[in-house]
Structures are given as structure tokens and as C-alpha cells.
What we know:
Elements: E1 8-11, H1 16-26, E2 29-32, H2 35-38, H3 41-50, E3 55-58, H4 60-65, E4 73-76, H5 83-89, E5 94-99, E6 109-112, E7 126-127, E8 131-137, E9 140-141, E10 148-154, H6 165-171, E11 172-174, E12 181-191, E13 197-202
Parallel strand pairs: 1-2, 3-4, 4-5
Antiparallel strand pairs: 5-6, 6-7, 8-9, 8-10, 10-12, 11-12, 12-13
Amino acid sequence: MISEPSISALFFSFFSSSEIILSILCGKTLYVLDEDVKLDKDKMERVVKSEGISGGIIPPAYLRWVDLSSMKMIISAGSEADMSTINKYKNVVRFHNDYGPTEGTIFATHFDCDKDIPYRTVPIGRPIDNMDVYILNNNSICGIGMPGELCIAGVGVANGYLNQPELTKEKFVLAPEGNRRMYRTGDLARWLPDGNIEYLGRIDQQV
């Protein structure tokens, strides 16, 4: 998690790479919590306040369970965010909803939740710098509002799966323009009229 200079940043192993790197690049302090703190709602809230922890990358389910409104910035990621969680924090914390599979080096899209959201669900936003998103029906690009498989391309996309050539061949394919690698996430999504992306679930039974 992210904080003011010389204040602590909370560490969640779920997004350890991002939080370690962000803490170093921003000149923050990385705060590593014991399991008994993370699993105890009251302890967690006390530590966040007492240590001055001002930000972090936190799964939506955890945010629903605890009250971390004393923070200044929260990035929600790891699973689908719901509107009730956004409404709980957006007026008191700078709140972002990000999306990205591990195969895309953690994050691929970003949505700023500080403004009112005129949709029934929380968008996952727009592609971050150096990443591109395609929404495809088989190999055809979907128009605005048409659901399809969310695929990502860009510098963050992995080379494939270690020692799994068949799965790599299935999931890592050429992007529509045919000159770079693209990852098929298996997630269902659609473009919204304002250029944001709405997550719709999975195209298969994977959790």
C-alpha cells in the first residue's frame, strides 16, 4: 500500500510485487503485517490508524469487511468490486478500481472512482500506459456495448506458461493487427460509451 513520505505503507502479499515496487519508487515505508492482524478486523483498523498507513492495494471482499476509511488512497483489485463498497469509501478516500491478470504483470486497466458512476456496475476503466485492450467475439473486434472476451496486449504481457506449451499456444496469440503477442484472459467484458470497460464475468467456469 502507498503512503505519505516517512509514513508506513501496508503490505498485502496478494499484490506484493506492486506494493514493494511502489513503496521504493515513491520513497514510502513498506509495512508488513502479521497474519493475526490481517485476520482480526479490530486489530487491522487500529494498526492502520496508529501507524499512519495511508494507502494500499486491497481486494474488495476485504474492504467490505473492515473500515479503512482513515486511509487517503485505496486501489481495489483482485476480484469484482461492487457499488456498495465504492460508495462506502469514495467520498472519504481517493478510490481506484483496477483490473489485470497475473499474465499481464498485475494491472492492465484503471478506473478512478472519485466521481459518480452512472452505471449499474463498477467499471474496470481504461487501459493503462503501454497496455492495450481488445474485446473479441472469436477473432472479430466487438463494437461498443457488445460483450466479448477481454484480451490484453502490451509490454506487460508474459511470454507464456512455464513448461505448458499447449496452454501457452491457446492463451497467448497474435493481436488482431498481427504483429505482437496478446493474452486471452477468459473474462467477459464490453466497452462502455465513454471508453471505459465493464467487467461481465467469465466465459468459462474458472473462479
